[in-house]
Amino acid sequence: MAYEYALVHLKYTIPPAIFLTLVLRPLLTKLDLYKTLILILVAFFATLPWDSYLIRHGIWTYPPNAIVGLRLYGIPVEELFFFVIQTYITSMIYILINKPILHAQFLTNKDETPPTIRRVRTWGQVFLIACVAIGIYLFRKGGEGTYLGLILIWACPFTLLTWSFSGYFWLKLPLTCVGIPIIVPTLYLWIVDEFALGRGTWAIESGTKLGWCIWGSLELEEAVFFLATNTLIVFGLVAFDRALAVLHTFPQHFPTVPALPSPSLLVLGLHLDPANYDMDRIRGIREAVKVLKRKSRSFYLASAAFPGRLRIDLIFLYSFCRVADDLVDDSHTSNEALAWINTLTDYLDLAYGSHKRSTDLGNVVEAFVNNNFSGTTRFAPNFLPTKFLPSEPLYELLEGFKMDLPFNQSGKGQQNVQFPINDEADLELYAHRVASTVGELCLQLVFHHSEKQLPNHQKSILVTASQIMGHALQYINIARDIAVDAEMGRVYLPTDWLKQESLTPQDVIKDPTQPRVEKLRQKLLDRAFKEYERSRDTMDTLPSEVRGPLIVAVESYMEIGRVLRERTAAPSRTRKGRATVPLSRRVWVAWKNLSIN
What we know:
The protein is mostly helical. It is built from 23 helices and eight strands. The chain has helices at about 5-25, 30-55, 75-100, 115-140, 145-170, 175-200, 220-250, 265-270, 280-295, 295-305, 310-330, 335-355, 360-370, 380, 390-400, 425-450, 455-480, 480-485, 495-500, 505-510, 515-535, 545-565, 585-595, and strands at about 60, 70, 75, 205, 215, 220, 575, 580. The two termini are about 45 Å apart.
């Protein structure tokens, strides 16, 4: 019987901790473990004196035949372990739910916060202050309200502190991000506690409790205790993530942020006056995330594994490329499309000219963007991280847009449309301009943000591999979108391929689902996987902190190609003419590739 409390851990707390660790292992970063360790230390030392007081004053008791007997300040070693294991379980659930979230987008200040949220924060503070007052009253009164009073006196001031600092941020987060990590472990530990109280593993002494049970043997005070402790843990994690978001979002305030920021640096981030936030930058992040979620679910999923500032800069880069592409593609005429290409070229001339000259042209660039880009489209050029990117691939990207101009010369399916992809050389050139350039730009951001600086020859090898992989991904994109492109009067299959099958581009536009077109789709997919195999092994030489996420980004997109190859056997996997990868399959691809990298 001396192992009764230990058995509670062996049966009910250690197994879920192991399960969560195995599920999260591919996603866990050093920063996640660092964050969890800090929370465990804070929880342990904050609970230690309070728990010791309860035991020394006979509020909590443990039958001698239920514990092994080792104690610290009167607290059984099993109870000390509970501090650690509960914090770990709740932290793992929080990390799992929050992993896809870019917390920077939820930073805000009082001026931007709606009155409703401001009122909720204020009433939350009032409620927590009232709980502290009630706790003091119950404790001073003594008797049956003592234990509940001590819980409120101990838990509510910590909660009030974190709520006051991070309440606006907390309320901006999706409810699931904070609700699930509080509710799920609380309900589970209520069940465990009810079982333990029923077996007499631990007990609350009569005369210090109200005697109300939620169900079975679960005392009201114990229910409040587990709800309060899990709330404290989640509030602490939210405060940590808010501090990280501030550090990563505002390089003007924090020029250098190590991979594992010191507690003092985190405190500085937490205390940065929200009035000093660059809200335009935050709005730019929000818009970039919207673009990413709408346009590329594969990259959005993969982006969750990128660290800090690299993730933000990659999202800004993707947003610029996508917005620029949409501005050109959505033009009604070739003249309008060309005008946008010229505007984007002028922007790059100004942006990169400001880097070369001694005078700061930042205001000139911003004024140009605001005058030429309307609405939310201005965020993409305003926050493109040109300081860290070479200009050549961006200009080359615009050359790729020019190859699409013939499609804007006339309406859909007109006979005088000049289809730009005549042969395999044109196909490769187009893929290089619109996809390889983006891959190279992503790598340049990786090189800039990487903790380990790679030698130039290795960088050159990686850049070449990224260009080849760009071909593969663009071929997948073209193969996926044959029907969608046909609806817009576009055909990217080489014209000489079509001639070999006795087809014309107009034939594809009229019926993109015919067997001969499907045969060419498979031919294009074969080229895609050949290019993929040429460059895939080189990715294993990437810096360790980005290797997994980049491989996930590539493999998630290649999975579209695999679905296309399965299309005949699984026609339900297409939507509006496009192959789709089920969410469960995308998650499995991400988990599998992160596990081995």
